[in-house]
Design goal:
The chain has 505 residues and is an alpha+beta fold. It has helices at 2-25, 31-44, 50-55, 59-87, 119-124, 128-135, 148-160, 166-173, 312-328, 344-361, 394-404, 408-414, 438-453, 457-486, 492-504, and strands spanning 92-100, 104-105, 108-113, 117-118, 182-187, 190-191, 197-202, 205-210, 221-222, 228-234, 240-241, 252-258, 271-274, 277-289, 366-367, 373-374, 378-381, 384-390, 415-434.
Length: 505
């Protein structure tokens, strides 16, 4: 190592000696020449005001113009400094623009029953409510509301049901979509049915998405406002149940409106429609564009492995999936990926503690640019306004009761009517923009230089040339004066001759 560093040090020292030797051979201009150079610079520079200091014979006017020039320089330095400080705070502005179109794409809508499990299956496996809460914890980090009795029952159940698959159980014994649960479906004047919905697992168990990314309706566009998707559900209250001790005390349909290319997120965004009501939902399309860091918080280079478009919810799922697979060697079926599926024993003993660890340590964070999942650079949301009316009316109640061959009380307690449409054929673009671009900064700095000093880029080059020339002369003077001081007053020329003689020897 020392042998490598030694030649490097010698080469650096040799280069420095060559520079010193080159400068020492240069002749130093006389004081008269240096004074003439300063004078010529002062009267020829494009920096305004300097020539007035030189040309004026009156000392008072010289002092006046010196103060003017120094004051202008001080002001321009202060102005440029304030503009640079403002630029490096990365300011942004937000513009809102409404675009009117002839046709607009319809969003995806995911529907779930507020009562998650079939009553008969839940009666046989009462522990399913507790187990599903453990499993669905991977979707959003919520606490498990239960007591030690529930934990003991879960341990006993896991010990006696080694091959129990909760995914198969929920898919088979959860809410289903067929002609008995979806009584009517109409999309923009055309009939639709269960085949137009894609199954998806959420914290509400079996859910169904209309206008899924791979569904044919994803490419259809609405050309008339006030018309869209109309649905009539039968929730079969007696056939489906849930545990009220866990907070599930409602009956009806919960749904969320989202982009066809995004996974549904019910937490805080779900809209509920109770039985016996007609929910009229009017939506608007809002596109939001975020700036990348440092102006904003998005990262345009982030891509997800299991989703076509980046979203915070998809990113959080992949983040949790990565940590769980790394620590437990398996992957929950509710999370994306191709790993080995976790069984219930792994869920209870490994996955659930790892999720608590992720939350405590903040391993999967969101929002800021340096978090695990920053905001997307572009996203589409569908703000909704919901109004309700009693459904059905007295005459319609008799008609539906006869049509379904059920009592009027049954119709009131089981039917949910939902209608989703656009309020207007337009969409709003909320765009975060840079308040100051590089070109605007340069123009501002150039304007300040021109206003106070009449300076330009050529003026700055003139000043640099002047400073460099004087520095060059100072270096030569420094090299010539040192030998005089060390040798007690020997002339520079004699010193150079002695030096040349030593080199020749």
């Amino acid at each position: 190592m020392d042998q490598i560093e030694k030649p490097k040090a010698y080469s650096e020292k040799g280069l420095l000696e060559k520079i010193k030797l080159y400068l020492s051979k240069k002749t130093l201009p006389s004081p008269t020449d240096r004074k003439k150079f300063d004078h010529d610079f002062a009267i020829s520079t494009s920096f305004h005001g300097v020539h007035n200091i030189v040309w004026n014979r009156s000392r008072t006017r010289k002092v006046f113009w010196l103060l003017v020039v120094l004051g202008s320089v001080g002001l321009v330095v202060w102005q440029i400094y304030s503009r640079l400080v403002n630029y490096f705070t990365w300011p942004t502005t937000t513009s809102v623009e409404v675009q009117y179109v002839e046709k607009i794409a319809f969003p995806a809508v995911t529907f779930c029953n507020l009562n998650r499990f079939q009553t008969e299956a839940a009666a046989k496996f009462g522990i399913i409510f507790f187990l599903w809460n453990i499993v669905s914890k991977v979707l959003h980090l919520q606490g498990i509301q239960t007591n030690s009795t529930g934990s003991k029952e879960a341990i006993d159940f896991l010990a006696s049901h080694q091959n129990f698959s909760i995914a198969e159980f929920v898919k088979k014994n959860g809410f289903y979509l067929n002609s008995s649960t979806l009584l009517e479906c109409n999309f923009f004047g055309k009939p639709c049915g269960p085949k137009d919905f894609a199954h998806i697992f959420t914290e509400y168990g079996n859910c169904f998405t209309f206008n899924h990314d791979e569904n044919i309706q994803a490419n259809e566009k609405v050309s008339v406002s006030g018309r869209g998707l109309s649905l009539l559900f039968n929730v079969h209250q007696k056939d489906f149940t849930d545990d009220p001790t866990l907070g599930f005390v409602d009956s009806g349909i919960i749904f969320v409106i989202h982009s066809p290319m995004k996974v549904p997120q019910f937490d805080g965004l779900g809209l509920s429609s109770p039985v016996g009501t007609h929910a009229r939902v009017t939506i608007r399309q809002v596109k939001t564009v975020h700036q990348e860091h440092p102006w904003g918080e998005c990262n345009p280079h982030l891509e997800l492995q299991n989703f076509r478009t980046y979203s915070i919810s998809g990113c959080l799922k992949e983040c949790r999936a990565w940590h769980i697979e790394k620590q437990c060697g398996c992957l929950p079926f509710l999370l994306p990926g191709n790993g080995v599926e976790c069984d219930l024993q792994k869920f209870y003993n490994c996955v659930s503690p790892i999720l608590d660890h992720i939350e405590v340590k903040g391993l999967c964070t969101m929002g800021t640019h340096n978090s695990s999942c920053p905001v997307p650079c572009e996203e589409t949301d569908y703000p909704a306004t919901v109004s309700y009316s009693t459904f059905p009316s007295q005459k319609a109640l008799k008609h539906l009761s006869k049509k379904l061959n059920q009592s009027q009380e049954y119709v009131r307690e089981n039917l949910v009517n939902i209608e989703i449409n656009y309020s207007d054929l337009n969409y709003k673009i909320t765009q975060q923009q840079k308040a100051v671009s590089v070109s605007e900064l340069l123009a501002d700095v150039g304007g300040q230089l021109g206003l106070f000093c009449g300076a330009s880029v050529i003026t700055i080059i003139e000043i640099f040339e002047y400073i460099f020339t004087n520095f060059y002369w100072i270096c030569i003077l420094f090299l010539l004066k040192i030998p005089e001081m060390t040798q007690g007053g020997s002339s520079p020329q004699k010193h150079l001759e002695n030096k040349n003689g030593i080199e020749e020897c």
